[in-house]
């Protein structure tokens, strides 16, 4: 069922400016947005103000397509009001007109969700409707459950779309496709042939003026509980029984339930030197800007295979990469050959897209020695669709495959819950390094961390 109107709360906010307006223009350009688009915010604006704000936002954060923007502008309308003002929601109901299946996008802080939903319910705007909410989906397991209860009081789970832009990125989608569209990977994708899995999500920048926000969140909440556990799910889950959203999310849930909750001895937390001097950061802050964890997955497929996650700010480069180390051959038939890396499968998710297989080939000459090479299976940095364009388009037509279900959210929180209170002291590290040296102890005996390099070998 296609939605027949889109309401987005927080129309004057930062998220709308950077992500929502460019996505709406892209949807209009592709002919997928021919419904009323109603912005709701506190600013004292008119329809004309909203259209001008949308135009400037797109010019600043994307590329203005004049023809597409004109299509979008014809559908843009504005309703001013506070989330606590019943009269404002009556104006919104009037603006919705005869729409029977609106999509309400709550691009606002989670603390305002309940108030906004109650306002919608009071004017009958939740009947037949869908709702989109932005992460974070809670701060811990308890608050995630409370948020789900708030949403379920007015919407069925099938009508709730929890948006995580990371799941809308083409490289992340490619993980799922590559795994299950090719038959050669499945026979080796298990504990008999995989020695370890590493995921590195590195950022070469700091908190970028968002110190107050980051000091409330930290790396575990910011990227581990959501983005990186979702990557692990795509890497480690079993094949869904079909392509439906329900089947895909069922397999993710099974995988999350199989991940052993983190313990303090399986985590290293770090903080880059100078973080406590950032504006909005407490002078004695114990919030981590780096984390390294070792995960165990208690399934028949993955028992005994360690999964390592490393994420942080002010690291040497900005890159997200997965390195799957395969088991070594059972015998060394070439004793003159020096010790060399094991075979591997590498997925780079950003800044470019690379899928490569590491192998060993004989070097020219009489001696039976070799060189390491990579067979690049895919190398393409293009993505014509913005993540928010993909996700909002899916939500408008009711496709939930790229959105997170309530039980999956709670299961992911359960994995990190034991270490949210700290998991040991934060250790300082110098900006431009790969975090505290103690992170190396998590992976000892496995050849160390794989450090991505941005220039791939030719």
Q: Class by helix and strand content?
A: alpha/beta
CATH class of the largest domain: Alpha Beta
CATH topology of the largest domain: Dihydrodipicolinate Reductase, domain 2
Query: In which order are the strands of the major sheet placed?
Result: 14-13-12-11-7-10-9-8-15
Proportion of residues in β-strands: 15-25%
Radius of gyration: 24 Å
Average pLDDT for all residues: 92
Number of strands: 15
Assembly level: single chain
Instruction: Give me the strand/helix succession.
Output: EHEHHEHEHEHEHEHHEEEEEEEHHE
Q: Helical amount among residues, as a percent range?
A: 25-40%
Q: Which key features would you list for this structure?
A:
458 residues, alpha/beta, Rossmann fold, Dihydrodipicolinate Reductase, domain 2, 2 domains, nine-stranded mixed β-sheet, six-stranded parallel β-sheet, 11 helices, 15 strands, 32% helix, 20% strand, globular
Give a written overview of the molecule.
There is one protein chain. The protein has 458 residues and is of the alpha/beta class. The protein has two domains: 5-134, Rossmann fold, CATH 3.40.50; 167-387 and 399-443, Dihydrodipicolinate Reductase, domain 2. It is 32% helix and 20% strand. It is built from eleven helices and 15 strands. The protein has helices spanning 14-29, 47-61, 66-75, 86-96, 113-122, 141-152, 170-181, 211-236, 245-258, 387-397, 406-416, and strands at residues 5-9, 37-41, 76-80, 102-106, 130-134, 160-163, 194-202, 267-272, 290-295, 307-312, 319-326, 344-350, 354-362, 370-379, 427-429. Strands 14-13-12-11-7-10-9-8-15 form a nine-stranded mixed β-sheet, with helices on one face. A six-stranded parallel β-sheet has the order 3-2-1-4-5-6, with helices on both faces. Helix 5 (113-122) links the parallel strand 4 (102-106) and strand 5. Helix 1 (14-29) crosses helix 10 (387-397), helix 8 (211-236) packs across helix 9 and helix 9 packs parallel to helix 11. The chain starts with a strand and ends in a 29-residue tail after the last strand.
């Amino acid at each position: 069922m296609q939605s027949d109107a889109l309401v987005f709360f927080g129309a004057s906010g930062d998220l709308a400016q950077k992500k929502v307006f460019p996505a709406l223009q892209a949807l209009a350009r592709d002919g997928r947005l021919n419904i009323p688009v109603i912005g709701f915010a506190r600013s004292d604006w008119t329809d004309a103000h909203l259209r001008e704000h949308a135009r400037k936002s797109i010019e600043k954060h994307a590329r203005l397509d004049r023809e597409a923007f004109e299509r979008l502008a014809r559908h843009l309308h504005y309703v001013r009001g506070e989330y606590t003002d019943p009269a404002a929601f009556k104006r919104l109901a009037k603006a919705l007109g005869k729409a029977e299946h609106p999509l309400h996008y709550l691009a606002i802080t989670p603390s305002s969700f309940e108030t906004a939903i109650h306002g919608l319910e009071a004017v009958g705007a939740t009947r037949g409707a869908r709702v989109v909410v932005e992460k974070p989906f809670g701060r811990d397991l308890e608050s995630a459950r409370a948020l789900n209860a708030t949403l379920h009081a007015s919407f069925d789970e099938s009508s709730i779309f929890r948006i995580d832009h990371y799941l809308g990125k083409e490289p992340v989608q490619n993980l799922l496709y590559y795994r299950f569209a090719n038959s050669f990977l499945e026979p080796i994708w298990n504990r008999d042939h995989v020695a370890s899995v590493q995921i590195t999500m590195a950022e070469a920048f700091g908190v970028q003026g968002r110190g107050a926000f980051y000091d409330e969140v930290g790396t575990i909440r910011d990227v581990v509980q959501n983005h990186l556990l979702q990557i692990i799910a795509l890497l480690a889950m079993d094949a869904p029984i079909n392509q439906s959203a329900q089947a895909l999310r069922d397999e993710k849930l099974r995988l999350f339930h199989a991940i052993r909750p983190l313990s303090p001895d399986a985590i290293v937390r770090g903080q880059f030197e100078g973080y406590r001097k950032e504006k909005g950061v407490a002078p004695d802050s114990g919030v981590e800007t780096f984390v390294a964890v070792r995960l165990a997955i208690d399934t028949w497929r993955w028992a005994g295979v360690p999964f390592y996650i490393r994420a942080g700010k002010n690291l040497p480069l900005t890159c997200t990469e997965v390195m799957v180390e395969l088991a070594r051959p059972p015998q060394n038939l070439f004793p003159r050959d020096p010790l060399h890396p094991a075979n591997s499968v590498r997925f780079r998710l950003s800044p470019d897209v690379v899928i490569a297989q590491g192998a060993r080939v004989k070097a020219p000459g009489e001696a039976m020695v070799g060189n390491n090479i990579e067979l690049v299976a895919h190398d393409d940095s293009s993505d014509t669709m913005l993540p928010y364009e993909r996700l909002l388009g899916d939500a408008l037509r009711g496709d939930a495959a790229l959105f997170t279900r309530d039980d999956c959210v709670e299961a992911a929180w359960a994995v990190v819950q034991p270490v949210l209170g700290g998991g040991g002291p934060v250790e300082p590290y110098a900006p431009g390094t790969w975090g505290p040296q103690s992170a190396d102890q998590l992976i000892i005996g496995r050849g160390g961390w794989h450090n991505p390099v941005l220039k791939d070998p030719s």
